[in-house]
């Protein structure tokens, strides 16, 4: 498989769970809790896909928009993790993200969402 996934999330427990699920399936995983330098981090890590959380200090939706406006990062698929309440609250389906996954999620749902990015 050998695809590199960058997870940007400020919740340690969620980071650990996602990393465990992805590494057990053969993905290489880079993690960061720093949303402020997201574009620079993506340029440095050069991931094949990115996982963002919309329930963070800086919403993942905003970071995805910044990444899609950058010529060097706009091609990278993005999976956005959202709470059910966020979807009802108006997160646009036609956003800068490639896909969305409702939290809480099962490991199989996460893996299916990641596979669908490629």
Indicate the CATH topology. Answer: Rossmann fold
Sheet having the most strands:
5 strands, parallel
How many domain modules? 1
- From the N-terminal CA to the C-terminal CA, the straight-line distance is 11 Å
Q: State the helix count.
A: 5
Q: Element order, helices and strands?
A: EHEHEHEHEH
CATH class: Alpha Beta
Strand content: 15-25%
Can you describe this structure?
The protein is α/β, with parallel strands linked by helices. The chain has a single domain (4-112), classed as Response regulator (Rossmann fold). The chain has five helices and five strands. It has helices spanning 12-24, 38-45, 60-69, 84-88, 107-117, and strands at residues 4-8, 28-32, 49-53, 78-83, 99-103. Strands 2-1-3-4-5 form a five-stranded parallel beta sheet, sandwiched between helices. α3 (60-69) links the parallel β3 (49-53) and β4 (78-83). The longest helix is centred in the first third of the chain and has 13 residues, at 12-24. The chain is globular, with a radius of gyration of 13 Å. It starts with a strand and ends with a helix.
